[in-house]
Amino acid sequence: MSALGVQAAGLVEAVGPEAGGFAPGDRVSYRVTSGNGGLNPLLPERDLIGFPKDVALEKAAAFLPLGLVARAVLRFQRPVGRGNTLFVHEDPSGADDFVRAWASDLGAILVDGPAAADVVVTPADFEAARRWRGGHGVGQQAAVDVFQAVRRGVFDDLTVTSYGIADADKARDDVASGAGPVLLLPAA
Predict the structure, then answer these.
(1) Comparing C-alpha atoms, which of 29, 109, 33 is closest to residue 68?
(2) Which residues contact 85 (CB under 8 A, 6 or more apart)?
(3) Tens digits of per-residue pLDDT, 124-173?
(4) 3/161 Cα distance (integer angstroms)
(5) How far is CA 3 from CA 29, 52, 54, 173, in A?
(6) I need a surface site. Which of 29, 95, 107, 128 has the fewest CB within 10 A?
(7) Which residues lie closer than 8 Å to 100 by C-beta, 6 or more apart?
(8) Could you give the CA distance from residue 139 to residue 132 in angstroms, rounded to a whole number?
(9) Cβ contacts of 8 within 8 Å, gap of 6 or more
(10) With 50 as the cut, is the pLDDT of residue 2 above it?
């Protein structure tokens, strides 16, 4: 699970005759819903986000969901730049760590309390970011921004916890406790 719900990643196995954006073998992510769950879901292209080949699949899968939340916070709710002082309230999903890392990369100065900050990220900002939905290619553009941050190493200091499918209960507990990025890997 992620701040955006359950996010899955995998390879495109086949495409329909009207497909234009993806091909078999492309690496993609999608939001799991009650209607598209299962091992081999049939999804419209508009619901897929492509992963670049130069970013490791595990890194892309681990950083994309909370990276999208951080992007929405820093792009729409609380934009920051070089020299802004920033205080970030805790977020149960761990998205606060992503916001801090990305804001530092943008040149913001992190401070210890809201009184010392000219920009304050609140729990309401995280909630608004989770409601953000990008359609018509907007989600893919948002992902491009996240992957550019990944390439720059913005999130390299964040801990990713990985579990095999047999430990799905542990993974769910970690997500519920706000452990940050948690990957549930398929059986080998």
Answers:
(1) 29
(2) 108, 109, 110, 111, 116, 117, 118, 119
(3) 999 999 887 665 567 888 999 999 999 999 999 999 999 988 998 998 88
(4) 15
(5) 14, 22, 25, 14
(6) 107
(7) 86, 88, 110
(8) 9
(9) 29, 30, 31, 32
(10) no
